[in-house]
Design goal:
Bound molecules: fe (ii) ion
Number of strands: 6
Mean pLDDT: 87
Number of helices: 13
Strand order of the largest sheet: 4-3-6-5
Radius of gyration: 18 Å
Structural class: alpha/beta
Helix content: 40-55%
Largest sheet: 4 strands, mixed
Low-confidence stretches: 1-31
Distance between the termini: 23 Å
Shape: globular
């Protein structure tokens, strides 16, 4: 049984991979999402039905098999178009060079939501990482440990069309535009793998929560300096045009794992504190060395 502390560590708007308290053995990857009454899609029976269908795909998925296609509607493809329209200029201004290169490598269709199977093939050819579908709720340890195997567990549904630029939970836009793109960078993919390996060597909930914080403030919300400007490499920033545009208002602290471990965060709001590396290379080397040395 997972402790309260272990459950809390990735409880956030982008990696809400939680957790029913009682789970059947082997079911931990695929708990179906329950929408809260304040969820934008709560009162939309069609959306809820589609969410359940997409969740069923993940629940019946067997690792190693082709990922079944998710049935997106024209309205949902329009959400994807709206997200890209907002993100494209925000990326040009605020995304780090490595991210912009990786977007080009994946060459997305911005008119329609790509299927996970297509994206996974392209990412795997670059870094060896595969995407695998999950219904939405996964134990933080399960999510992080899969990274050690080069597997990124992805949700497949898209946010509700009434709020195209907001999602209270990780959706396919965050997974693909944020995580899949960064996994098409060999160095960022390597760091994800090292996080997974470090989690595997971590037995206490307290130590797991430290690694989760480091993941949050780097892979999810990391920034770095590039030619004198602050640029984003974190997937939570890079998949949210709103937060990307506001990130310069955050209090920037030098990237230092010891300071990150002390820093709490509130996942329900724009991050008021971000940790900033001196460069992409400095970030990569600092995290790589810390994670390899993690005991
Ligand atoms: Fe995420």
């Amino acid at each position: 049984m997972t402790s309260q502390l272990e459950q809390a560590v990735l409880q956030d708007h982008v990696d809400l991979r939680l957790i029913a308290s009682e789970q059947a053995p082997g079911a931990e990857r695929n708990q179906i999402v329950q929408l809260d009454p304040d969820h934008p899609g709560f009162r939309d029976p069609e959306y809820r039905a589609r969410r359940n269908r997409i969740a069923q795909i993940a629940m019946s998925y067997q690792p190693g098999q082709p990922i079944p296609e998710a049935p997106y509607t024209a309205e949902e493809h329009a959400v994807w178009q709206t997200i890209w329209k907002a993100l494209r200029p925000a990326h040009e201004t605020h995304a780090c060079a490595e991210y912009l290169l990786s977007v080009k490598r994946l060459a997305f269709d911005t008119e329609r939501i790509p299927q996970l199977s297509e994206v996974s093939k392209r990412v795997e050819a670059i870094s060896g990482f595969r995407l695998e579908p999950v219904a939405g709720l996964v134990q933080p340890r399960v999510f992080l440990e899969n990274l050690a195997n080069g597997v990124f567990l992805c949700t497949q549904y898209i946010r509700h069309h009434s709020t195209p630029l907001y999602t209270p939970e990780p959706d396919v836009a965050h997974e693909i535009i944020g995580h899949a793109v960064t996994l098409a960078s060999e160095k960022l993919a390597h760091l994800n793998r090292l996080f997974g390996e470090a989690v595997r060597r971590t037995y206490s909930a307290d130590r797991l929560s430290l690694l989760s914080r480091l993941y949050w403030f780097t892979i999810e919300f990391g920034v770095l300096r590039e030619e004198g400007k602050v640029k984003a490499f974190g997937t939570g920033l890079l998949s949210s045009a709103g937060e990307l545009g506001e990130m310069h208002k955050a209090n920037l602290r030098p990237l230092d794992p010891g300071a990150v471990f002390e820093q709490e965060y509130d996942p329900t709001r724009y991050q008021p504190i971000l940790f900033c590396a001196e460069s992409f290379e400095a970030m990569y080397e600092q995290l790589r060395d810390h994670l390899i040395g993690w005991r």
